[in-house]
Amino acid sequence: xxxxxxxxxxxxxxxxxxxxxxxxxxxxxxxxxxxxxxxxxxxxxxxxxxxxxxxxxxxxxxxxxxxxxxxxxxxxxxxxxxxxxxxxxxxxxxxxxxxxxxxxxxxxxxxxxxxxxxxxxxxxxxxxxxxxxxxxxxxxxxxxxxxxxxxxxxxxxxxxxxxxxxxxxxxxxxxxxxxxxxxxxxxxxxxxxxxxxxxxxxxxxxxxxxxxxxxxxxxxxxxxxxxxxxxxxxxxxxxxxxxxxxxxxxxxxxxxxxxxxxxxxxxxxxxxxxxxxxxxxxxxxxxxxxxxxxxxxxxxxxxxxxxxxxxxxxxxxxxxxxxxxxxxxxxxxxxxxxxxxxxxxxxxxxxxxxxxxxxxxxxxxxxxxxxxxxxxxxxxxxxxxxxxxxxxxxxxxxxxxxxxxxxxxxxxxxxxxxxxxxxxxxxxx
Length: 429
Fold this sequence. Notes:
By secondary structure, this protein is α/β, with parallel strands linked by helices. The protein is built from 18 helices and 16 strands. Strands 6-7-5-8-9-10 form a six-stranded parallel sheet, with helices on both faces. Helix 17 (about 370-385) runs parallel beside helix 18.
C-alpha cells in the first residue's frame, strides 16, 4: 500500500475528464500537487492543457473519469502506454483513508436502491455513515471524516475497472447481466470488471455475491482471499419478516436478501433493522409505486435501461400493461420464460422500435405508438373495459432515454406528469 506523503503529495497529476468526479479530485489534490486538466468539452477549453503538451509531459498519475473509454478517446495510444499510471477517485480516497470501513455495492441492477437502504439502516443504528460514489455524490467531496466513519459506496464497472489500489471491507455484487458491452466488449469482461472488488480484498474481508454463472466462473479462476457468501434468497421467508409492499417484487427482494445476510455478519440490531426496512419508500423512478387503487397499480421504473432490469418485475405481477422503448443496449436479450409472457400486453415507444418488436416477436402481443401520451390513452380505454380485473401498469422502458429525454429522471418525471394530469382523469379516478 502506498503511503500518503510519498504518493499523494508533491506529485504531478493529469485529470482527464472534468465532470463531478474530476472536479472533486482536483479540489482534493490541488493544495499539495501540480494539477493539469484535460477535457475535450468546449466549456472547459480555457482550463484544458493541449494534447501536444500532455504527450510531452511526465505525469506521476492520470486520474481518469469513469466516463472515459481508453479505447475510444483522443488519448487512446497515450493512455494505453501509460496504463500503470491510471487511477480513479476511489484509489485516491482509499490511499488517504485506508482504515475507514468500506461497504461497496455494485451489480447491473439495484445498486442505488441497495446502497440507499443500507445507508438508512446503518444511520438508524446510530452509526457514523456516509453514502457516496456513483449514486451522485463524489467520494472525494466528503470532508467530515473520522476513523469511525463508515462509507457505503455505490461503484460502477467503469470505476472498478480502472481502479488499482481501492479495497473494500465488504463487497456486494448484486447481479450480472449484459450491460455496457459497447465498452467492455463481452459479458465475461464486464463480470471481471465487477469482480475486481473481490480480487483486491484481504482474508478478513467479506464478499456477498449473486449465484451467477459469470461470477462462479471468476471464483474458479482465482484464489480468493476473502470470505465468499453466496446469496440464495428464500422469498417466502423474507416476506414473512416484513410488511412493506415495496418488496413485493423479485428485484427488490433480491436486493434486500443481500442486506439481511450482511446484517448477520455485521451483527445489527434486528428490531431496528426491520423497522427501517418496513419504512423504506425506495428511490424515485426505481420500481416506484406512484398510484394504487382497488383496480390498478401504476409503477414507474424509468431507471430500467435493459431487459434484465425489467424481467423480474414482469415475473412479479399479473395482468400487466408493459410500456417500454427508447435506445436499446447492444447485446441485450429478452429471457422471460413463456409462462410469464401470457399475462402481459406490451406498448412500445421511442427510436428503437424495430429492435424491440424483433425481441418480443411471437412471445408477447405488442402495439407501437409514437409517444407516451398515445400509449396511456390506449391503456386508459383498456382499463375502463376491465375494471373487474386488477391490473398493473408497468413503465419499465428496458432502454436508455436519450432519444427523447435528457436522462431517466427526466423521462420518469414526464411519465408521472402524464399520469397525474391526464391518465387519472381519463379513468375517472
